[in-house]
Amino acid sequence: MNLPSPPPTDPFEVELEEGQNYFWCLCGLSQKQPFCDGAHKGSGLKSHCFTAEATGKKFLCGCKQTKNPPYCDGSHTEIC
User: Fold this and answer.
1) pTM, full prediction
2) What single string gives the DSSP state of each residue in 47-58?
3) Are 15 and 6 in contact (CB under 8 A)?
4) Which residues contact 49 (CB under 8 A, 6 or more apart)?
5) pLDDT tens string 6-17
6) How far is CA 43 from CA 23, 33, 76, in A?
7) pLDDT by residue (tens digit) across 25-71?
8) Cα–Cα distance for residue pair 3/74, rounded to 1 Å
9) Is 50 exposed, middle or buried (0-12, 13-18, 19+ CB in 10 A)?
10) Res 5 pLDDT > 70
């Protein structure tokens, strides 16, 4: 099983635009966190495509352990 590289654990506050597609980084290697820059190539992981449901600020997961991708669900508080 491929696991993401250790990314920052805190969520990323981002501005999303309704109807816009985004690619959330799952590998932890992207230099454009929390968004994908293609750094996952060869890792066996892929980015997660999602469409923003509303315009506004959202918190995207930084620890990559959320059960509600790409949104932060507080999983980072359980990481040692």
Assistant:
1) 0.84
2) -EEEE-SSSEEE
3) no
4) 21, 22, 23, 24
5) 556 789 999 999
6) 16, 17, 22
7) 998 889 999 999 999 998 888 999 999 999 999 999 999 999 999 99
8) 19
9) middle
10) no
Place of tokens 């993401």: 4
Q: Which residues of 29-41 are buried (b: 16+ CB within 10 A; e: fewer)?
A: bbeebbbbeebbe
* pLDDT at 72 > cutoff 70: yes
Residues with Cβ within 8 Å of 57's Cβ and at least 6 positions away in sequence, in order, are 13, 14, 15, 16
